[in-house]
Amino acid sequence: MRLTVLGSGSPEAYARRASSGFLLEIGDDRILLDCGGGVVDNLIRSGRLPRDITHLFFTHYHSDHMMDYARLVHAAWDEGAAPLNVFGPTPLAAITDGYFGRNGVLNNDLRARTELPQSQQVWVARGGTLPRPWPAPVVTEIQAGFTYQGSGWRLSTAQATHAEPILDCLAFAVEAGGKKFVYSGDTGLCDDIADLCRDADFLIHWCYRGSGEQLHPATQIYCPDPAQVADMAQGVGVKRLYLSHFRVHMDTPEHHEKALVDLRDRFGNAAGIVEDLDVFDI
After folding, report:
1. SS3 for 182?
2. Which H/E stretch holds residue 73?
3. How far is CA 244 from each of CA 93, 185, 268, rounded to the nearest angstrom?
4. What angle separates helix 117-125 from helix 107-115, to the nearest 10 degrees?
5. What is 185-206 written as a DSSP string?
6. How many CB atoms lie within 10 A of CB 83?
7. Peptide bond connecting 253 to the previous residue in cis, omega within 30 degrees of 0
8. Rounded CA gap, 275 and 102, in Å?
């Protein structure tokens, strides 16, 4: 497995970090986990194109995890790609129809691109055939406990604790070639997440709270700090641990050093903080 970090930030607009998105490459499959704002730009910067993505899995539908969904699908469609396989909690089908349905927010764009003679000729000149269909992602709604068998890889899910009951939230584990990668999504610490992380070779865990930082109690319960994440990962046998989802105020040398000290003291040296466009072999 090869992991490319396409977005390691938060909902805050920030030049250093796009919102959440992680690309796994396994054989001929390119699996995108979440697709927040800026992820498509970083996908292109990494040398790939939207049409290269074969599978997209959503942890949940906060905007910073799905804002680039429509852009990814539309761009891949415009490149002539096969329909994208998309998986995520309810209401993924309604969200997709809200973008690409006959009354969706993109219906005027799609009608113009498929019905106007000048647009049809541009499409034909690029190798397309008429009539041109609309984008049609292959949507599968999933819940905790869902598993998926890919070509040489397997994905499993666990329930995250983040924004229920309005949003159903998940975490993912992907296993291939005897290795296990876990992406926590956004979550508090809980038994389900710990079990998913058990014996992981590589864990990306969200970190929305700096070392020792105090948030409102209603928020803090869902936001472990670096020390708490490190303790959990150490306790379940994780081999490499990296933090993501850093907020702007946490992205200073002082905050990084505090987080790294906590990681080293409680987990060991095989830990760090990811940056956009980092690449790891797992």
Report:
1. strand
2. helix 69-78
3. 28, 10, 17
4. 70
5. -S----HHHHHHHTT-SEEEEE
6. 14
7. no
8. 39
H or E stretch at 103: none
Tokens, residue 232: 């959990």
**Helices and strands (DSSP H and E) totals, the chain:** 10, 14
The token pair at 189 is 């610490």
**Residue 56 CA: distances (Å) to CA of 33, 51, 113:** 6, 12, 25
Kindly report, residue by residue over 217-275, the tens digit of the pLDDT.
989 999 999 999 999 999 999 999 999 999 999 999 999 999 999 999 999 999 999 99
C-alpha–C-alpha distance, residues 236 and 228, integer Å: 13
Does this model's pTM top 0.90? My answer is: yes
Q: Which of 188, 189, 171 is nearest to 180 (CA)?
A: 171
Q: Among candidates 216, 212, 158, which has minimal Cα distance to 189?
A: 158
Alpha helices, DSSP H only, in the chain? 39-45, 63-66, 69-78, 92-100, 107-115, 117-125, 191-197, 217-220, 226-235, 253-266
The pair of three-digit structure tokens given for residue 127, joined into one six-digit string: 């190798």
Pick from 177, 266, 197, 193: nearest CA to 238: 197
Amino acid occupying residue 54 = T
